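Question: Hello, beginner here. Any chance you could explain the protein record under this note? Any guidance would be welcome.
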Amino acid sequence: MTKAIRVIDTGLRTGRENIAHDQAMIDAHVDGVIGDSFKFIHFKPCALVGRHQDLSAELKLDECARRGVQTVRRVTGGGAIYFDEGQLGWALICDRRTVGGDLAKITEKICTAAALGLSTLENLTGGGIDARFRPRNDIEVGGQKISGTGGFFDGNTLMFQGTVLIDLDPLSMMAVLNVPAHKLKKRELASATQRVTCLRTLLGRVPPKDEVCNALLIGFAEHLGFGFEFGKPDLQVEKLAQELHDEEIGTDDFVCEIDEVGRRRDVLTGTNGAGNLTAYVRLEGAQNDRIREVVFTGDVFITPPRTLMDLEAHLRGKKLTDVADEVQSFFEKANIGMVSLQPSEFVDAVLAAVL
């Protein structure tokens, strides 16, 4: 059965405006104001961090300011990325049952659909590319990343978004991003530019964005059975997006909400074994054997987004000897979808900080 999905294009906007519009569409879908929708997104130069990342640890803020690159915090998890007019963003906002499965399965389905679509693009001699889903949430060609994705649930509403690198500016990307060493070491790379590629390099040409948009829609139609109807952005959503931008998402307070967490002298720092999760811990008690405060940061792909904040609150006042049991109990009771980490890794990060 064909699943009806409305398609809109929100045009060129700043990063913070785009994220505010994402949140507005989520809220509107939850409230039943809009139905299942697929949107294309275009960015002015910006550097985006994931919902749970430390701003200063991920971005070179002085260089962002010098280059006029806006700093942005997403409402989804994942890692830091650089965006400009050379990239295309896309997002699916729908009932989670439209795709079906848990977050890991949905990620595989959606990334596979996008990869199939991108594989229909042709180079100058009529050949194509072989784009494929790479767990946990990337799309690659020949081992190089051409698209990253991320998403979460809000009740029965799924928000899943991705990027397509059409014409990459590696110098600007490397100038503003602090690429974690563990990501490069894992693939034995000297720099992030070896990890990514773009359609210009793969096709020997810069395909128009309309062509890339159509290719993606083909992939989603064939793999997920979507039937697309083209429309325009909703006025009600636009009004809500402006309010969200002005009151929260577009503010420096929101973007800097997690920044330089470890700057206090009494903050202890530890990471999990993979290096993609950091725990910042302050202790209390006569023997410093209880958690006064803990903040988790990293490239975390988890739903709902406030899960980490709930876990942080749950661990306050708990004895260090009980951390493993408390973390396990929290994840067993909570309705959580997590792709990138295991509960034990939160324990590992805390204990690495305090032992």
